[in-house]
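Because showing beats explaining, we think one record worth quoting, sequence and backbone structure tokens together, and here it is:
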Amino acid sequence: PPPSASLSPGTSVPVSPRCWHRGVSRDPGARWTEPGCRSCTCRVRIPPIPCLSHGAIPTRAEPRVSRQEGRVLCDTVSCSVPCSHPLPAPAGGCCPTCTGCLHEGVARAEGDVFSPSNGNCSVCICLAGNVSCLSPECPPGSCPSPSPSNCCSCHPGKCSFRGRTYAHGARFSLDGDGCTTCVCQGGEVECSFAPCPVLDCPQHQWHLRPGQCCSSCRDTPAPTGCSLDDNGVEFPVGQLWSPGDPCELCICQADGSVSCRRTECLDTCPHPIRIPGQCCPDCSAGCTYMGRVFSNNETFPSELDPCLSCICLVR
């Protein structure tokens, strides 16, 4: 047990201040959030110590306990929302969030561009919880159109192009070749070229035939062999040859392409002899040892130990 201390009459025994709330002890000044989005604080009030009047004689009394009362104060969580269209509080949260926007009951992601449901041709964007909308600026003299596809012009203007006049929406071909299509839109002419497919032949084989808008590949005769670009050698279809590596064998295909395959060698002895110009090493001619070639059954001294004698055995 801790050592006891003698207390004079009237001495106060300090008690550590605490708050008890729903069976949980809280420190003074502690803040926490209760279910239902209520913010609580532990506050401690220290009562004043009574004083003796002048001339009074203290009587013998038991030591007083200085009780510092803890009190829990709770209030509804106050949320500061710095945006105009916040999203509802996420699960387990109390305050709305400005990461996204809630516009006309629809949740919008940050940076989302959309049009309002009233179809007034406005364009809106969600930025930092705020929704900003812009309406189109119509040129002077235009009027609102009942069609959502055209917000400004209710009387589309005609187009004058190369001395001719076209009505709004008219389509025509440039120079009558059918390769370029033009359209009159609100007094402006927009032309586009017919898309052409990607050709799988070299550019020097492209050919534009009369009456066509796009080039096509020239008809090439069927290949009779294979030509190698590096040395100009031509091989007939079905010809086999080695391009320089004795372990590689090539064949000329019927379509003029070259197909090559490598030969895999299997060593059947521990010291095979490699013959220049031959793909796989030879195990029947003898042995190689320390860069030297020895015939079958030939004996020779060891390069590592002069007291040892070696023999070449071909198996």
Q: What stands out?
A: The chain has no helices and 28 strands.
